[in-house]
Write a structure and sequence with these properties.
cobalt, alpha+beta, 9% strand, 5-stranded mixed sheet, 700 residues, 27 helices
């Protein structure tokens, strides 16, 4: 049994904390995240290993946990092949999935997040070895036969509960898309293609975030300060989209997106292998293979909205006018201008200056707000715990236990929130361990990691978040709570993203809980519960919240159109092969679906890391946003803190993971089955400045 104590009470035995003098009394979780933690080496306690896995107290432990999982896999395969058809068949398959995924999921995280290169390399090897085993299992004829015997036995199969039947069907689907129906030679070819895809995916992901270099002398000296210096070179590792200087944004865009022939080849080969695999196992294209079982069903059902395109032209015209006003010598609107000038317009029109808001959004205040929201909606609380020695990979990581008022401990969230040069630059969520029902009646508790890139606290202030950072925090916590509140019987349908080792939660549904949290993050009734000035304790004025909410709609059409462009380009890449380069396709799609000109000698697609985890499924962000919009307006808009609605939302949409068809979950919550037209209308209504929102008196 765990003992939950506020983190701020645990700074002893060499641990020190600094809390800022304020007029505010924080809750324990708020105080924990507004405290500056300094952990020292603790020589009196044993190293428990990463995430409490003893073997991972040293880098050699990866091989130990990997080999153990592979041995257990072999035993379970033999057991599954001997087992007579019944519920036990599905249970053994799920044990098999859990044994491999517990190692693969953890390694998948460590290979990108651990500051020690030796850990990252060991985790990378583990990912490849486990992935290779999974692909072999997915073409194991005897293993598949044991499952098919169950599904073909109508008398036994019909008596199984709905979740067990769905999980059995999903396991069979994994076999089918891997080519189990092929002859031996073609099955081997499918395995080889899958193994090659694992390697190509890893190579492409690594390259997406690598900086580009340019000689110092090639750039005006006055902009050197905006980039990293490396001897006689300047390193550019991003788009510097928020830089006020037009030249800085232009240089960053042209240098960071400059084509790399090797990466171009990796992407072309990745797309080619996916197409070969899809056709080999009987699909018209990789997109058809990827969308089977999703809410979209097939590529033909995805299309753009002319209404969004018309609104986008108005947004771009506003941006052109603003750029002309600020830089009359160079008024042409370019791709590097979109994110910057949309922000400038919002700030000018509604006085949304981040520095005015951030004192009210200390990290502790925001965590306090999330804790209050989850308590009111679900009866679940966030409790800070002190990690054991060796349990975390960085001194800045905080550990949260999620505890329900009647159900007890639901799981753990590790919060890696602060910027480090070695971290991935994107905010993201990782599932380390999925939940499932154990044989002894206990529940295997889920473990997740949230990664953000927030500024470190200073001597005079805790970490202060801009409105955008606060919204990202709510978004990622939505993913985490989806895992915590899910109670699936089987690990195979627990909530997870970006993994090819199992079906889990359908991609175009998985973003719904996180995007829904963004609506809570901009509602005054929610914000008013936690947004307090970190020094004075004064609440954020209602008028400032009103301006922030209304500003979201400004240039929203252009932002949505950009997502449409990304989604359609992703579909074309994974559709019928075309005799032209990925750059030529991108230029064509940009012209048709975006509206800003292509910049010569750039290859934006080589930085599009979502092509790996969301290949042929990038549309999921738009579809999930549409569902979240409908759920918010129909269910939470009138009373976002209503416990009865929160419980119904958990019951209908969060509890099932991937154990229930996603459209049935949406239908259960909305009491209707939405059409593609409903999805489009939901997106457009969010862009309509006349849509009736929670209107507040701007003088209030």
């Amino acid at each position: 049994m765990s003992v939950y104590r506020p983190l701020v009470c645990l700074f002893r035995h060499g641990t020190a904390a600094r809390a800022w003098r304020t007029l505010t009394t924080w809750s324990p979780v708020g105080a924990a995240f507004n405290a500056r933690v300094h952990r020292r080496l603790d020589i009196f306690h044993q190293n428990v290993g990463l995430f409490g896995v003893p073997e991972l107290s040293c880098v050699e432990g990866f091989e130990v946990v990997q080999d153990r999982a592979l041995q257990e896999t072999q035993q379970l395969v033999e057991e599954a092949c001997r087992c007579p058809p019944g519920v036990q068949t599905v249970e053994i398959f799920d044990k098999l999935s859990d044994s491999l995924c517990r190692v693969a999921d953890m390694a998948d995280f460590i290979k990108v997040a651990h500051p020690d290169p030796s850990y990252r390399e060991a985790a990378e090897r583990t990912c490849i070895n486990i992935g290779t085993m999974v692909e072999r299992l997915n073409t194991n004829v005897d293993l598949c036969k044991s499952l098919k015997d169950l599904l073909d036995n109508e008398e036994i199969f019909s008596k199984l509960d709905p979740e067990t039947r769905r999980v059995a069907e999903l396991f069979l689907f994994d076999f089918e898309i891997s080519g189990i129906h092929l002859d031996k030679k073609k099955r081997k070819e499918a395995v080889n293609l899958n193994v090659k895809l694992l390697d190509l995916s890893n190579q492409f992901l690594m390259s997406c975030h690598m900086p580009n270099r340019i000689e110092k002398r090639a750039l005006p000296e006055h902009i050197h300060q905006h980039f990293t210096k490396d001897g006689n070179y300047i390193q550019i590792g991003g788009l510097n989209a928020d830089a006020p200087d037009d030249l800085v944004r232009e240089v960053a865009y042209k240098v960071f997106l400059y084509p790399n022939e090797n990466v171009m080849h990796i992407l072309e080969e990745l797309l080619s292998c996916r197409d070969k695999l899809a056709r080999l196992v009987g699909y018209e294209s990789y997109a058809h293979r990827a969308l089977k079982g999703t809410m979209a069903k097939s590529p033909g059902r995805l299309y753009s909205s002319e209404i969004v395109s018309l609104l986008t032209e108005k947004d771009f015209e506003m941006m052109r006018e603003m750029k002309t006003k600020l830089n009359p010598r160079n008024p042409e609107l370019m791709p590097w201008d979109h994110p910057y000038f949309s922000g400038v317009i919002r700030a000018e029109r509604f006085n949304i200056e981040p520095s005015l808001y951030s004192p009210y959004f200390s990290l502790g205040a925001c965590m306090e707000g999330l804790n209050g929201l989850f308590t009111q909606l679900y009866g679940a609380s966030l409790l800070a715990e002190q990690p054991s020695v060796g349990e975390v990979w960085s001194e800045d990581v905080r550990k949260l236990a999620v505890v329900h008022e009647t159900e007890g401990l639901l799981g753990y969230i590790y919060c890696d929130f602060f910027y480090r040069p070695d971290k991935p630059h994107q905010d993201c969520h990782f599932t380390i361990r999925g939940g499932r029902q154990l044989e002894d009646g206990q529940y295997q508790l889920p473990i997740v990691v949230l990664m953000l890139n927030l500024p470190h606290p200073t001597r005079s202030a805790p970490t202060l978040l801009s409105p955008g950072m606060m919204e990202n925090l709510f978004h990622e916590m939505g993913h985490a709570m989806h895992s915590m509140l899910g109670r699936t019987r089987y690990q195979h349908v627990t909530v997870i993203l970006f993994l090819s080792l199992g079906t889990r939660c359908v991609t175009d549904f998985a973003e719904v809980p996180s995007i829904l949290m963004e609506y809570f993050a901009t509602d005054y009734r929610v914000i008013s519960q936690f947004a307090r000035h970190y020094q004075t304790g004064q609440p954020l004025p209602q008028s400032m919240v009103a301006r922030l909410c209304e500003s979201k709609k400004v240039c929203g059409a252009a932002d949505t159109q950009l997502q449409v462009f990304y989604a359609i380009m992703d579909q074309v890449y994974h559709g019928k092969p075309q005799n032209r380069s990925t750059t030529d396709i991108m230029i064509d799609m940009q012209k048709k679906y975006y509206g800003l000109p292509y910049v010569t000698n750039t290859a934006w697609q080589l930085r599009f890391s979502h092509l790996v985890g969301y290949g042929a499924k990038y549309y999921s962000y738009l579809m999930s946003r549409a569902v979240a919009s409908m759920v918010w307006k129909q269910c939470f808009y009138k009373d976002p803190l209503n416990r009865e609605t929160g419980e119904r939302y958990r019951r209908e949409m969060l509890a099932h993971g991937g154990g229930k068809e996603p459209m049935l979950m949406v239908e259960g919550m909305l009491q209707k089955r939405p059409s593609i037209e409903d999805f489009v209308n939901a997106l457009v209504s969010d862009l309509d400045p006349d849509f009736e929102t929670f209107i507040m008196d701007s003088e209030g």
